[in-house]
Amino acid sequence: MSNEVQIHLLDMTDAEGEIQAQQLTADIKNRAPDIQTEMRSKVSNSQDMGATLVLLLGTAAAQAIAQGIATYLSRRGNTSIEIEADGRKYTFHGDGASAAEIAKAFMGLSGQSSAPHS
Length: 118
Hints:
A hairpin with a 2-residue loop joins strand 4 (about 80-85) and strand 5 (about 90-95). The protein is globular. The model is unreliable at about 110-118 (pLDDT under 50). The protein has one domain. By secondary structure, it is α+β, with helices and mostly antiparallel strands. Helix 1 (about 15-30) crosses helix 2 and helix 2 (about 60-75) crosses helix 3 (about 100-110). It has helices at about 15-30, 60-75, 100-110, and strands at about 5-10, 35-40, 50-55, 80-85, 90-95. The chain has a 5-stranded antiparallel beta sheet with strand order 2-3-1-4-5, covered by helices on one side.
């Protein structure tokens, strides 16, 4: 697995995405404080950072990150996110994503067996 995983917050403006990416970062850092995170803008000429959060991680952190993402999604029931690494994508919706399903996606991204969820 690449050490970089991108999480895209879907269906929101760049300004709202920046706020939501900050909240998602806080939820992930509560579970995995040593994870390095970075927000990236989708649009190069925008001052808003947008709705992409980049995680730099090792495979051992997958469960903690999955729990942080599940916590975030449970609070924002109408939000969808896409997790992307190594050209593979998994989409989760706030109304039904569990930490176990999200962790399976991370295992799939690390080359272990997992079925995508969308």
